[in-house]
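Worked example (supplementary).
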Amino acid sequence: MHPALRRIGHFFTRHIDGVLLTAVLLLMVTGLLTLFSASNGNLVRTSGQLLNMMVALAVMWVFANVPPHVLQRMALPLFGLGVALLVGVALFGEIVNGARRWLDIGITRIQPSELMRIALPMALAWYFNRNEATLRLRNFLVAALMLAIPAALILRQPDLGTALLISASGAYLIFLAGLPWRIIIALGVAVACSMPFLWSAMHDYQRQRVMTLIDPTADPLGSGYHTIQSTIAVGSGGILGKGWMNGTQTHLDFIPERTTDFIFAVYAEEFGLIGNLVLLAMLLFVIARAMMITANAPTLFTRLLAGSITMTFCTYAFVNMGMVSGILPVVGVPLPLISYGGTSLVSICISFGILMSINTHKKLVQT
Amino acid sequence: MSELSINPGIEIRDSERELQRFRGRLGLLGIFALILFGILFLRFFYLQVIQHGHYSTLAEANRISVLPISPHRGIIVDRNGIELAHNYSAYTLEITPSKVADLNDTIDELATIIDITPRDRRRFRKLMEESKRFESLPIRTRLSDEEISRFAAHRYRFPGVEAKARLFRQYPQGEMFSHVVGHIGRINQREVEQLETEGRLANYRGSDYIGKTGLEQSYEKYLHGTTGIEEVEVDSGGRAVRVLSRTPPVSGNNLVLNLDAKLQEIAYNAFGDRRGALVAIDPNTGGVLAFVSKPGFDPNLFVDGIDPVSWKELNGSIDKPLLNRAAAGTYPPGSTFKPFMALAALFYNKRQPQQVISDPGYFMFGGHRFRDGRPVPLGAVDMHRSIVVSSDVYYYTLANELGIDPIARFMEKFGFGSRTGIDIIGEAAGVLPSTEWKMRRFKQKWYAGETISIGIGQGYNSYTPLQLASAMATLANDGVMYRPHIVNYVEDIRTREKTPIEPKPLRNLELKPEHLKIVRDAMVGVNKDGTGARAFAGAPYVSGGKTGTAQVIAIKQGEKYVESRVAERHRDHAWFIAFAPADKPTIALAVIAENSGFGARAAAPVARQVIDYYLLGKVPNQPAPSEDN
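After joint prediction of all chains, the assembly is encoded as:
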C-alpha cells in the first residue's frame, strides 16, 4: 500500500477500537432491519435513520480523537453549563405534553437533560480524580450532591425515567470510586424505608405507570395498553419468531411507538427467542469489551468515566427490554443503537467514542 | 495479577491495591450486568416458550375479527301469497355518536343538505338513550337516490356519518294486520338477556331487530335466519385489511298464513268506524281465516323506533288501538253463551229438548226478580225456541238447575276461561266463574243467586272473541277442538320445503251427535227466522248464528272523562257468533262490536259480509253499516 494512503488510513483508524466498532455496526444493522419492518417498509424513515447513524459514527470518530485529558478539562464547565440550562428549563422552559423539558435558546430548542447524561459522569469522574490521593467520606457527600442537583431538576420537569437513569450512571460511578460498603448498606436500608414517602411524592401519571406494571389489565385501553400489546408481541413471537416483516402485532398497528421506544417488541415478535439471544449476546459483547477498556483505563478519571458509560449502556438496554417485555414500568427509554431517533444515537456514539479515546490514548499519555 | 504487570509503566499515585479494588468492584458490576441479562433471558423464555400458546392466541384475537353478516328476514304472506310483511332495500343515514364531536351541530349541518324532520330528531334522540354509544344509529331512513348522491358529495364534512344500504321491514297492509302480523323493532336490553339465556344471542350478532309482537314475535326463530360470518384481518383501529374466510348467512323462512288478506280487509272495513274484533276459524283445522282488532295502528311506525309523540298518541288514545281486542280483550259473552248452556243441559241430561219452560218475562230467585228485557213475555219456550228467540228465563232457570260448578266443568272443555294456545303471544285467559275461582279471586263463597245471570252469559263471565270463535268452531266441528293457528306452513326460502303447522286436535269433547244437531239446528233457526234473520236475509247458503249483548256497566278505570263519548261508551257491546254452511261448516266466527247495542244490529251484518265473501267470493258494495241510534 502506498505510504500516503496508509497514513490517511492511519489518521482515520488510529483511535478507533475495531472490536467495539464491529459490535456497534452489527447492532446498527439489526436496528435498520427492524426499523424497516416496524415502519412497514418505509424507506424514507429507514434511510433517515441510516443518515443519523452516519452522523453518529462521525461524532464517535471525533470523540475518539479527543484525548481524555481534554475531556477532563471540559468536565466541570460542561457540568456547570448543564446545571445552568436545567435551571433555565425550570424557570423558562416550554411545556410539551405536560412536562417542562425543552429550552428555547433562540436558534433551536434543546433538552438539557440529554447533555447531563454525559456531563454528570464526566464531572463526577473529574472530581474523584482530583481528590484521588485524599479520598474521604466528605468527598462522597459532595459527589452525592453533584448527583442530586441535576437529578432533582430533571425529576421536577417531570421526567422520572431520565432522572433515574442519570442517577444510576452517577451511582455506578460513585460505587466504582470506592464508596464504603457500610454506607452502601445503610443507603439500601434508607431507600427501602423511604419507598412509601417516594410514592406519595410521585405524580399521578408516574404512580399510574407503576400500578400498570403490577396489573396491566386493570386499564387495558389506557396506560396498560402499551405493555399488554408489546408483551403479546414478544410472547407470540415464540422460539423462531414470525419472520421478518411478518409480525402481525407490528404490521396491524397494535404496537404503539413501535419504531422508537417499543422497537424491541417488533424485533422479538419477528425474530423470536433465537433472535433475542443473538441480540442479548451482541449487547453483552459490547458490554464485555467496554469492561475490558474500563479495566485497563490509565487514570482514575478515565476508569470511572468508562465504567459509568459501560454500566449506563447496560442499564438502558435492560430497562428498555424489561419495559417492553412487561417487567418494568413504561419509562421513555430507547433501546441503544436499535431505536429510531438521532439524539439517542448520537449520545450513545459519543460515549463509545469516549471509550475508544480512553483505550487508544493510553500510550500517548504514557509517552 | 498478570494483567497488572502488563502495564508496569502506569503511574499510580495510590497503591496497586486501589486499582485492584476498582477492578473488584468493576467485576461486581459485570456480574450485576450478567444478572440483569439473565433476568431478561428468563423473561423471554417464559413469554416465548412457556406462554407462547397463550400470547399467540391473544395476537390472533387481536388480528382476526369475526364480522357477522345478518340474514334476510323471512317474509309473511297470506294464504294467497299476498305480502303482509316484506323487506325492501334502501339507504339510511347513520350516525355513530361516539365518533361525532357535537351531535346537534352535525345533525343541523346534515339538515342543510338532507331533509331531516323534527320527528326524525325525536326518534334519534330516543334511540340514543336506548343504545350504546359506539353503535351507529339511523337519523334518516329511506333516502332517495338524489339525497344519497347529495350526501356523497358532502361526505368529507361528516366524519362519523355514513350512508348504509339496509334491508327494511315493511308492512304494506298497515293497520289492518297490526295485531296479527305484529312488528319488529330494535333489540332492547331485556331481549338481549332473554336471547342469552336461550343461547341464541350469538345468532343475533349483527342483528338490530327482533320480532316484538304478533307473528313477528312468536315465529321469530323461523323468520330470523342464521347469521353468516366473515373472518377479516383487522388493524388496531378495527379497519378490515383483508377477508380470511366467509360463511354466508342463511335467510329466514317465510310464513304462509291461513289468513285470507281479502277476508281480513272485508271484516276490518265492515266494522265501519266502530271498535271491535272478529276471529274467523276453519273449524276443520283450527286455521285462523281472519283476525281483526279494530282500531289497529300503523306497525311501520315501530320498526325503527317510534317517536315519542306518535307513541303518546297511540298509547293515550281512548280507543286503545294498541290493545289486541281479539286475543286480549275480554267481554261477557251475553246470549252467545246460550247454545253452549243448551248443550250442557243435554250433556247433564237436565233438560229434554222438547221440555217446555214457561217464560213470564221474569224469574224470581231469593226475592230478586231477574228480568227479561223484552216488552211481551214469550210464554212457552222449548230448547229450540229458547235459542232462536233468545229467551233469558229459560237459561235463568237452567243455570239454577245445573249449578255453577257443573256449568264451569262443561264450559272448560270448550276452552272458556283458558288460553286457546293460538300462535301469537299475549292472549288473555278470561274468567270462567266457579266456586273455586271465586274463593281464589275474592276469598268468598259462591252465592246461588250469582249462578242465575251466568246462564245468559253475564255476571262474572268474561271471554275473548278468540275463545268464543274457537268454541264456536268446536261446536261446528262436532266437538273436535283444534288449536287455533294463524300460520299454515313455514317455507324454506331456498329449498321451497314446507313445514306445516300441523292442525292439532286438542281434544274431542265426546258430544253426542243428536245433542249437537239440536243446538246447531236452533242456531240455523236464529239466522232463518230468529234474531239473526234480518242480517242473513236472502243468503244463498244455510248458516247458523247467535246474537248476544254484553252489558257495559261503567267506563273502566284509567280512561279520561270525555263528555262527548261517554254516552256512547256506556252502551252495550254487540256479539254475534256464526258458522256456515250449516251441513258441513267451513267457517266459524265470533264478532264483537263495542258499544253498539243489540248484537243483531251491529255485529251480525259484519258476520254476514265475512261469510258471503268466504263462501261466495262476494265483495260488499254497500257502505259499511253506519251507526243508527
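Two points are worth noting when inspecting this output. The longest strand of chain A covers residues 99-104. Chain A is about 70% helix and 5% strand.
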